[in-house]
From TrEMBL:
This is DUF3464 family protein. The chain crosses the membrane at residues 32-48, 57-79, 91-115, 127-146, 158-176, 183-203, 223-242, 254-274, 294-315, 336-357, 393-412. It comes from Runella salmonicolor. Keywords: Membrane, Transmembrane, Transmembrane helix.
Amino acid sequence: MKNKQLYFAMLMVGMALGTAWAIRGQFGHEHGAAWAGAIGSLSVLLVAKRADWYAKVFAATLAGAIGWGLGGLASYGIVVGYGRGIEFVNVYYGLLMLFVIGGLYGFVGGGLFGLALENSAAKPVKWHEVIIEMVVGAIVFYFFMIEEFEWRMTPPRSEMWAACFGSAVALTWYLVRNKHYSALRVAVFTGLGGGFGFGFGNFLQVLGHVSGIKFNFWNVMEYSLGFFGGLGMTYGTLTSHWEKTDDAQPKSKVWFPLLMVVLVIPFIVWDQSFDLDRLQGIFSKLALAEDSPVLVGVQWTSIGLVVAFTAFWWVRFYQNKPNPLAYSANEIYTLFLGHWGLYVMFSLLVTGAFMSGYRIEQYLYIVNWVIVALLIGKAQPEFSAKPLAPKKWGVNFGILLVVFAFLTLILINSHDELKNAQKRFGVPPPVEEAK
């Protein structure tokens, strides 16, 4: 029964983060990933059912959002293309590199989220040190790995994955040095889930394309990354030891993360995604004229939603609350569904799915939202602390290498070379001798 509750909680978070990450496909980049990471973080807090964590809901959600968002620096379009080839070395390389990229998303996202949960008066997190060390780590690793050693993953695209890797190394050193072992455990399992989810998602995406079924299988790949990342994030959290922290927070510590989560990140997504040129390109598929009032309506509706939701959250979670602030499970549930629901609405608006059924996957987001809304309150997991086990993690990583090799064999025997396939390795064509 205990394990069933754990698995059920993992499923709920996996569905929430998987859906949010699929929605992120419409927005991309760091801002889209940050919003999805916020939703995943909120869902973990909701299933954990700890009042002391509710008090720090905005700080923990912002930390998770920033961590997941940092991975958005990495380019992966060409890496996905390696999986569409027919040579073992190229396809296997593609799946492994997607494991690295997805792992970085999850490791940093889970690590910062866990660090926020461990933060307390007795054991405060020195956030200025974390930020400085991660920035320095990003610069140093990028310089040596890319500029000096030229260990390029995805030429000629951006190699910012190396900067993310440097940040992850610096974060790891901070966690180990300051004995934040629970946060480290969350980072490891979230990274494992995100990495596997990305590689496995590419496997599903390629097979889906080969099947000939008309569906957005790229979105399936994105859902897979978020789903397995959510599984790992939940497992790492619920199987770690956490000291009890304060059940309330002073207002001075809440207003900034609150506005970052509910206003700044959504506004950046709006600013970068709802410009008129982009909307004209999307809605031209729906036979709308470039000067159609619908486009302006979409712009104003989307920004109006941001303002309205921000005002509601500000009044509900800050203005009408006594100092210090404390929150209930019902309030966290409302915040989770509302913030996630706004992301769903953004997706329906920016794709035009609110007026056309040409993007059927958009309605599956609503289905996932409803299922999780109805069931997530039934999660009653118990915390069961488990120790760090680096040797076991190493064995599991070895198993993953074998699994990806098996998936590679399936892919290269399932199709001829596909459109947009990329080739990282291979014998160069022979040079003709001078006549």
